């Protein structure tokens, strides 16, 4: 057993076994879009799946930031009392 796992048991943190870890990694791999995850049919290391997942989450954050900025610019260019402005404001919530 790795020292990391034994330390977590000592700290009262629940642990998962290797089969549960493999199942969670497989589920996580299914969430990655096909165009990012080229090797869905073949076995991929857990570290590769985690790395791809982190990269995907980063790209989603960038996309959200970009869209928020575009909405903010659009809101600034519309009449504050217009129906369009109300719709844009509702998207921020």
TrEMBL record:
<dbReference type="InterPro" id="IPR036638">
    <property type="entry name" value="HLH_DNA-bd_sf"/>
</dbReference>
<dbReference type="GO" id="GO:0006355">
    <property type="term" value="P:regulation of DNA-templated transcription"/>
</dbReference>
<dbReference type="GO" id="GO:0046983">
    <property type="term" value="F:protein dimerization activity"/>
</dbReference>
<protein>
    <submittedName>
        <fullName>Putative myc-type, basic helix-loop-helix (BHLH) domain-containing protein</fullName>
    </submittedName>
</protein>
<keyword id="KW-0804">Transcription</keyword>
<feature type="domain" description="BHLH">
    <location>
        <begin position="5"/>
        <end position="60"/>
    </location>
</feature>
<keyword id="KW-0341">Growth regulation</keyword>
<keyword id="KW-0805">Transcription regulation</keyword>
<dbReference type="GO" id="GO:0005634">
    <property type="term" value="C:nucleus"/>
</dbReference>
<keyword id="KW-0539">Nucleus</keyword>
<dbReference type="InterPro" id="IPR011598">
    <property type="entry name" value="bHLH_dom"/>
</dbReference>
<dbReference type="InterPro" id="IPR044293">
    <property type="entry name" value="PRE"/>
</dbReference>
<dbReference type="Pfam" id="PF23174">
    <property type="entry name" value="bHLH_ILI"/>
</dbReference>
<dbReference type="GO" id="GO:0040008">
    <property type="term" value="P:regulation of growth"/>
</dbReference>
